[in-house]
Amino acid sequence: MKPISYFSLLLSLLFFANSCHKATQKTTSEHSKEIFLNDLELLQNQLKNDFLPLATHSNNIDSLQKVFIDCRNNYKKIEHITEYFMPSASVLVNGPPLNEIELEENKVFAPSGFQVIEPFIFPVIDSENRKELVMEVKKLIQELKKYKQLETVEFSENQIFDAIRLQIFRINTLGISGFDTPLCQTFITEANTSLKSMRRYIKPNIEANESKSKEIIQIWNSCEAYLSTQKTTENFDYLAFVKKYSNNLSRTLVEFQEKIVIPKLIETRPLRVTAKTLFDKDIFDVNFYAPNADSYVTDERVALGRKLFYDQTLTSSNRSCGSCHQAEKAFTDSKTKALAIGGSQIQRNTPTLTYAALQNAQFYDLRVNNLEAQAFDVVLNKDEMHGSFDEAIKKIMIDDAYLKAFKTAYPLVKEITQVEIQNALASFTRSLIPFNSRFDKFMRNENTQLTEKEKQGFNLFMGKGKCGICHFMPVFNGTAPPSFTHTDSEVIGVFESTKSKKLDKDLGRGKLNPFEDWLYAFKTPTLRNIGKTAPYMHNGAYKTLDDVIDFYNNGGAVGMGIDLPNQTLASDKLNLTETEKKSLISFLQTLSDE
Fold first, then answer.
1. 460 and 580 Cβ atoms separated by less than 8 Å
2. How far apart are CA 308 and CA 423, in angstroms?
3. What domains, with CATH codes, occur in the chain?
4. Minimal CA–CA distance to 68: which of 119, 5, 4, 1?
5. pTM, entire model
6. What is the pLDDT of residues 437-484, one digit of tens each?
7. ∠ CA 544-368-472 to the nearest 5 degrees?
8. Cβ neighbour number for residue 169 with a 10 Å cutoff
9. Model pLDDT for residues 11-60, shown as the tens digit of each residue
């Protein structure tokens, strides 16, 4: 037997050591799971051992508020995981402090979590409701236990990258707007905590790809450094953060994932899995909101829908859809309330059809779930179209141009029915999402600039004006990011006119579903093209943007002394100056499509 050389022995030891390292090296899933479970345990212990005793006995406001803020920050360490894998549970941990209404069950579910607890200790301790505070803290501790279910869930690499990308979008919208920190206003610290935490989850990917990770490390460092220098929310530059920092981070994250060849998920969602920033031109997949795959948009269906939209085939009168939804006015009609057939007024204002495709409920009262159902409702409405699908089909069947268009749009359909007519109209509406305003082009770095006044307006929109907590970027409507699967309504207390102090009699959602929370509730519409869509509100009572901003500046109906217990708009006065109001309007004008 030949003796083993020193060199051979060294190679063998190195090979053995490397094999042991590989055997003990954690996968991305294991690494992420370990971080998550450790942070979850830290939060649970902090709530149980620190916050609950203080909530039960302490009157030291500084201690109580500090521990609450620490708990919120520790939640932000895991939020990208909890929201991604268990969104329904997360609603009860950090969801809005509003009742959840389940129509199918005809039940109202009370909210819980951090946002419910916050008013008990900010700005001062609510000593009269100490029992309720303790009860809410105990409920939160119980809700957090549900997250232990994730111990058995595998976190794949592409899911981790996707969760981080969506969390960056969440920070851009719900985070920095103060949506979930309306009183404690700790969103700057929480955003930084979240970014630092997420970085740990892809540390193995960064370390294993040193040459490909330089850019993302640099940009991640710059984001954290920028947030660390921001000491007050009053002077926070929202626009600079989104455009210069977080947009670059989400873009670079996606590009880093591509460089290291981690495949993207294959799913149909409102927000495309390929979207690098919130302002990508093709960020949304409108087909998600279609009732089924047979209803997906095609160019041929859009063309057919446009033809139907602009002629009188669908009505017994001399009007078309385009009579009330006029393209040059962003598909509105400039009237206080829409005109019925015969000249009388319909109860509500004509809403814009631009970006209507990017919501999962239609009409001011959200009474139908998709654009096909909306088309059905409008065509048959005796005041609006007073049409008949049967009569329309008879006209189509003797029109060669229409027959050819239907055959091209629906080649597998043997007989034209109202289903195809509804879908064609819906397809045309789904095409009305251009995202080509000056604001969009500025955010995409397309050689377009905003004035200092317009930039200040955006910062007011997201900050002092509190507009961004209901009108969410990038659609600026009430469809909540970053999933964009739920469209909500608000109760703001609209008056009969700007000079009146009487609530408009229209009960909104409450007319169809008499839940107390839904009385006077209306869909939160898009603010895109708002410069073209006056007059405003569901009843057209507000003629100018100045009128609208004055209404919000005064805190809605409650802020102006009206008894409206279910108002969801904060009733505090915003105290906007005249200069600030003008800047806000200047920004809103940048949302008009060119």
1. yes
2. 11
3. 28-266 (1.20.1420.20), 287-430 (1.10.760.10), 438-589 (1.10.760.10)
4. 119
5. 0.93
6. 999 999 999 988 999 999 999 999 999 999 999 999 999 999 999 999
7. 50
8. 24
9. 454 454 444 444 346 777 889 999 999 999 999 999 999 999 999 999 99
Q: Is the peptide bond before 96 cis (omega within 30 degrees of 0)?
A: no
Place of tokens 């009487």: 502
DSSP 197-264: HHHHHTHHHHHHTGGGSHHHHHHHHHHHHHHHH---STT--HHHIIIIIIHHHHHHHHHHHHHTT-PP
pLDDT confidence of 5, banded at 50, 70, 90? Answer: low
What are 109's two structure tokens? 């579910």
How does DSSP assign 282-335, residue by residue?
T-B-GGGGSSSGGG---HHHHHHHHHHHHSSTT-SSS--HHHHSBGGGTSB-S-
pLDDT in tens, 351-360: 999 999 999 9
From the number of C-beta atoms within 10 Å of its C-beta (0-12, 13-18, 19+), residue 594 rates as: exposed
Helix or strand (DSSP H, E) at 411: none
> Could you tell me which residues come within 8 angstroms of residue 245 by beta carbon, excluding any fewer than 6 positions away?
219, 222, 223, 226
The per-residue pLDDT for 210 is 93
| Residue 465 CB-half CA count within 13 A | 28
